[in-house]
Amino acid sequence: MKRLTCLFLIISVCLCQATAQYKVVIRITSLPASPQASEVFIAGDFNNWNPSDPNSRLQKGAQGLFFFEGSNVPSGTYVYKFTRGSWETVETNFKGQSIDNRTLTITSDTMVSLTIEGWQDAVKSAPPKVVSTASPQVRWLDTAFAIPQLERSRRIWIYLPANYDKSAKRYPVLYLHDGQNLFDAATSFAGEWGVDETLDSSGKGFIVVGIDNGGLKRMNEYNPNDHERFGKGEGREYLAFLARTLKPYIDRHYRTKSDLKHTSIAGSSMGGLISFYAGILYPDVFGNIGVFSPSFWIDPSLDSVIGQKVNNRLNKRQRYYFYAGQLEGQEMVPDTYKIANHLERLTGQKYPVRVNENGRHNEPAWRQEFPRFIEWLSVEVN
C-alpha cells in the first residue's frame, strides 16, 4: 500500500495546479487460470507506462485477490493497463486480443471491481478457439460491398426470418452498425449482441442488415464532423451510403416494407451517435432510431445541429429509443437525457430513455437491452 500511495503522491506533485484528493480502491475480482499471476502491476500515463514499476505493484489479499487501496489520490482521469511485469504479459481480452486502455475518472472517493480476461503471453501456448454462434438465418450478403461515397468496401451481413423462403410476406428492416459484433462470437470484438438469437426466440419478423465497422476507420466513419484527435469525419458520407446505396439495394433484392415506418437504424457508442445523426439528417428514410450509449461527448456542436436540422413536420413522424448505463461514466446519462429532451422540445414528441443502473459500456450490456428495444420497435412496426 505504501508503494502505490507513493506512486499517486508522485502524480500529485506533477500536477500543475492543486486538485482535490480522494480515497481510491481497485479490486481485481477475477484472473485467468493460466498463466498464473504471482504479481500484477499497473502501467499508465502516471508512471510513463512502466510495466514493472515497483511502486505500482498491487497488493495480494488473504483470498489471493489483488487490490490497491490509496488515499490522497488527486482527482483527474487516468489511463492504464494491468501487466504481470512486462509488455509481453500485458492483459488482453478472453480471446488473447489487445484491448483499449482502461480509464478511471476520479471526482470523489472511488471503488471499482475489475476483471482481467487474459494475458498476452497465453496466446502463443494456447490460442483460444471460438466457434461460430451465428444462427442458420444469418448469412453474408457480400464480403466486399462497394461504398462509392468513401471509395472502399465492406462486409455486409443479413438476417432473414425463418419463414422468409416459405412465404411472400414483406418485412420491416433494421440496419445495425458494427456488424462484427451482432451475430457471431467468432467475429466479435468482446462478445456479440445475440441479435439472431433474440429474433429467433421471439418470433418477431425483421430483416436485419449488419454493416461491419471500418476497423481503424471506425471513428471517422461514425463521426459526421472533423475531430482534432481522430481526424476527418466521414459520417455524412457513410450515412449517404446507407440511405442512398445500401437501402435501395436491399429493397430491390429482398421483400421489404421500405417505407419510413418500417425502416429502422440502431447502434451503440459511436454507432449510437451516427444512428442519431441518421435520424436527424434522413428523416424521410429512417423512421425508428435506436441510440445505445451514444458518444455525444465527441460532438460539442450537436445541440446546434439539432436546432438547425430538426424539421418539426418530418422528424415528429419518427420514433427514438435512448439507452444509457449508469456505470458508463458520469456524463453518459445526463448527456443522453439532454439530447433527448432537446429533441422532444423541437418535435413535441416524447421518447423513452432507458437507464440501466448496472449498465457498463460493453456488448453484454447492449445484448441485455436489445430484446427490450425489439419489443418497443414491434409495437408500431409489426
UniProtKB/TrEMBL annotation:
MF-aspect GO terms: starch binding
Residues in the signal sequence: 1-20
Keyword tags: Signal
Protein name: CBM20 domain-containing protein
Domain CBM20 intervals: 23-116
Domain of life of the native organism: Bacteria
Entry-linked SUPFAM superfamilies: alpha/beta-Hydrolases (SSF53474), E set domains (SSF81296)
